[in-house]
UniProtKB/TrEMBL annotation:
Domain Amino acid transporter transmembrane residues, every copy: 27-313
Protein topology in the membrane: Multi-pass membrane protein
Pfam family, any one: Aa_trans
Keyword Membrane: yes
Claim: Transport is one of the keywords in the record: yes
Residue stretches spanning the membrane: 40-56, 68-88, 108-126, 147-167, 238-256, 262-285, 297-319
Protein name: Amino acid transporter transmembrane domain-containing protein
Gene Ontology cellular component list: organelle membrane
Length: 326
């Protein structure tokens, strides 16, 4: 959720990375004004777009907004791929590196900082049960998960490849920020703007789905004896919980404007726990006595690798952060 808000802020109000300043689409259109600052832009999108959508109690009510967000993601991939192919034909692309380049500024342990980003990109486990619960046939959730993973892999691969071809080493942690660059033609400038607008809308429409699962889990944690959130008639409790989540996500997006920090530290802690450590411990605990010896060995190896990788990634990020300040 924090990443969703942060990405929206980058697109609408820009981002400053070191000496580089990337303007948002609102600032490019209207100049730098108080009302298109990150704080105000995020607040407006929160109130006008996200808040009405998160008031739905069931995920089925979000099927149309989710479908639109998926189409916008596909449009983003298609346009980005088209720009990269045109640049490739014109000889303006960067040459991809087949192996990581290590120099005096980069150590082998820096490679581990990519793991949290990859993990958090596939950390959707918390959505499985709330969404599967509303399916007419819950067993269809297995097929839905596999298709979702395949869809994500294809999109991530295409964006990663063509994004690097377009921007090379200057690519930002949020690739949308790079599309503020001026194109050689009016069509190119229009496509750059279209990419940023379409994906910003995509993120806004994805936010309610992520919020739904988080809100459901928090509700069941604090109110285990109450009716399910979808059937609970206490609107006051529902609205208060929704507002608290929205306000916290807004404040986090303002306080930490660079989504790279979210990816790094949430990816190496929360996402790793959700993706590897918690599932592994469930298999090892084997409350239903259904885990085989092979399952337990795989679970143990998975937990060990997750803990080691997390420790290396966190320590490397802290070391790099302290080194950049000195």
């Amino acid at each position: 959720m924090f990443v969703c808000k942060g990405t929206t802020g980058d697109v609408l109000s820009g981002k400053k990375s070191g000496d580089e300043v990337h303007l948002g689409i609102l600032q490019q259109w209207f100049g730098i004004q108080w009302w298109n600052s990150r704080e105000v832009a995020l607040l407006v999108t929160l109130v006008l777009v996200m808040f009405p959508l998160v008031l739905y109690r069931s995920v089925e009510s979000l099927k149309y907004s989710s479908a639109v967000s998926t189409l916008l993601a596909v449009a983003f991939v298609v346009i980005c791929s088209g720009l990269a192919i045109v640049a490739l034909v014109q000889g303006k692309t960067q040459t991809p590196k087949l192996v990581p380049r290590l120099d005096y500024r980069t150590s082998f342990f820096d490679l581990f900082t990519a793991v949290p980003v990859i993990v958090i990109a596939f950390a959707f486990h918390f959505n499985v049960h709330p969404i599967g619960f509303e399916l007419a046939n819950p067993s269809d959730m297995k097929t839905a998960v596999r298709l979702a993973i395949l869809f994500c892999v294809v999109i991530y691969f295409i964006i990663g490849l063509f994004g690097y071809l377009l921007f090379g080493d200057s690519i930002q942690s949020d690739i949308l920020v790079n599309f503020d660059q001026s194109a050689d033609s009016a069509v190119g400038s229009f496509l750059n703007t279209l990419i940023r607008v379409s994906y910003a809308l995509h993120i806004m429409l994805v936010f309610p789905v992520v919020n739904f699962s988080l809100r459901t889990n928090i509700y069941e944690l604090f109110f285990p004896k109450k009716p399910l959130l979808a059937t609970d008639t206490d609107n006051k409790r529902f609205v208060i919980l929704t507002l608290v989540i929205l306000i916290l996500s807004y404040l986090a997006a303002i306080a930490i404007p660079d989504i790279w920090y979210f990816f790094q530290f949430l990816g190496s802690t929360t996402a790793l726990c959700l993706s590897f450590i918690f599932p592994g411990t469930i298999v090892l605990r084997d409350a239903l006595r259904i885990s085989t010896r092979k399952d337990k060995i795989i679970a143990l190896v998975m937990i060990i690798l997750a803990v080691v990788t997390s420790a290396i990634a966190i320590s490397t990020n802290i070391y790099n952060a302290l080194g950049s300040k000195s």
